[in-house]
Amino acid sequence: MSEAFFIQLFASGLAVAALVGLAAWAKIARPAGPLDDSKARALFEDEFPDRRLDAVWVASDGQGALAKSGGLALVLCRLGDGYVARQIPWAQALQASFRQGRLCVDLADIAAPKAFLNLPAWPPKDLAA
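The structure assignment produced for this chain is given below.
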């Protein structure tokens, strides 16, 4: 084995260590934490800046949220390390299946076909359809 081989091996090792250090420093590999009411509202306002939120329901496990905005339901659900946002008609959200504390919302989207939210009750009794 030649000296050039060892130099190249050492340089490759340094490059890999530098990339791992950069990823750790930039927090690239950290997943988003669970949602609370303020985080959910901030994400909704970021994704839908022109929408006014009438009400927000955050999943009990923090893995998603649903908001009413006029005639639309805005949905946040966990996908990978972050959250995806979709909008559907409010009537569709009201008709979503709710069994054993778990709401299953059909998003009709190939990238995120369904959203599952753990909620205490659905539909909400205090909000008219």
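Interim note for the steering committee: The chain has three helices and seven strands. The CA atoms of residues 57 and 85 lie 14 Å apart.
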